[in-house]
Amino acid sequence: MRLTRPMLAPAALAAALALTGCGSGGDGEAAVPETATGSLEHLAAEAKCAPNMQTDADTIRQAICEKGDEKYVLATFSTDRGQREWLNTAKDYGGYYLVGRKWVAVGHEDVVAGLRGKLGGTLEQGTRHGGGTHSGGGGEHAGHSG
Fold first, then answer.
1. From CA 54, how far away is CA 75, in angstroms rounded?
2. 89-94, long-range: CB < 8 A, 24+ apart
3. Strands of the 96-100 sheet, one edge to the other
4. Which of 18, 48, 15 lies closest to 114 in space, CA to CA?
């Protein structure tokens, strides 16, 4: 692929932001590597996980990774669209997601944040349920009678 002037500007901006540590809070965030790519087995090896395969289909491969108290799901997808559709549906259930190109790791916030130091990627959060006025079982609907 030949780089043209319109393509160079975004690439230069991304490189400048990466080199300056833009957005890093000084708590190890600057140590985020370039986002990993590859098969489920390759990603699991990068994360130092022995994957327990749960789904092995043409469109999605999914495994559970456990290391001590840490447990997460690692999934790879055959297409970007398939990944985004899966992620949009999964995020309705809440949770924390580390997202790379054609892969997702799902687990507790601390676990996926730790994985980011090994696999790179972007942290995303699912829809929060039960927060605000609905917490504690009462909330704003407690007095309704029908």
1. 10
2. 90/126, 91/124, 91/125, 91/126, 91/127, 92/126, 92/127, 93/126, 93/127, 94/125, 94/126, 94/127, 94/128, 94/129
3. 52-56, 60-67, 70-77, 103-107, 96-100, 122-125
4. 48
Tokens in use for 64?
């559970």
End-to-end CA distance of the chain: 64
Alpha-carbon gap, residue 44 to 75, rounded angstroms: 10
Cβ-based neighbours of 86, under 8 Å, separated by 6 or more: 60, 75, 77, 104
63-84 pLDDT tens trace: 999 988 889 999 999 999 999 9
DSSP secondary structure of 15-52: HHHHHHTTT--SSSGGGPPPPP-S-HHHHHHHTT---E
**Taking Cα atoms as reference points, which of 40, 37, 35 lies closest to residue 51?**
40
pTM value is: 0.68
15-39 pLDDT, tens digit each: 332 333 333 344 445 578 999 999 9
Token look-up 């990466």 returns: 18
Joined tokens for residue 143: 């007095």
